[in-house]
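DM between two lab members

TW: hey, do you still have the DUF7409 domain-containing protein entry open?
JB: yeah, one sec
JB: this one, 203 aa:
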Amino acid sequence: MSDDLQEVKFVGPATATVLVDADISAQDLMDRRVSHAQLICAGVNPGVAARIRREHSLSWSKQGGEDLDRRAEQVRGLKDGERAWVAASSGSWEAASVDQAASTDGRGDEIDEETRWQSQSWPSHGNDEEVTTEEIAWRERSSPTPVTDVDGVGEREAAHLGEAGITSVRRLATANPGHVADSLDYDLETIREWRDAARSAER
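TW: and the structure you got?
JB:
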């Protein structure tokens, strides 16, 4: 069964093991009997689940219907902080999906650190000149460093990393190399080198 699953595009050995444990077969994917949400709940890496969903036109959720599919399309491409805000405003399952992504890609509680930092409002007290100065300083501090600042990561690689939710040096520094390599079908050692370089840049 695991061998059959590995014949499915974007399903590597690690993902196949997770799917076998969840009693999800290759035929289930081909016949679209599972949803993106079910893959996430089974423990599939969010980046891999997204690729499988797109490749096989899986629904986002078996419970949400077409309305949820349309809403998911509307928020596709939004950055993590924006996506979490949209999910929270509607009370949809997407909020749980964001939390699940944090726990399955090796970053744990640290995944939202950057989002929380950026969401902090700058001080609004004092005169206009002071507020403007503080706002500029806040924006400079909170602006994420692009992954292209890491040696070996060009625009093409940065676009691929973005598919796995890695859009800054800080995110890359806390990423799980194994999950990222599996998700993007990259060499594990390459991802480790980028992760280590990102950690050095963060110091």
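TW: got it. The CA atoms of residues 31 and 56 lie 9 Å apart. Residues 64-69, 89-95, 101-111, 121-125 have pLDDT under 50 and may be disordered.
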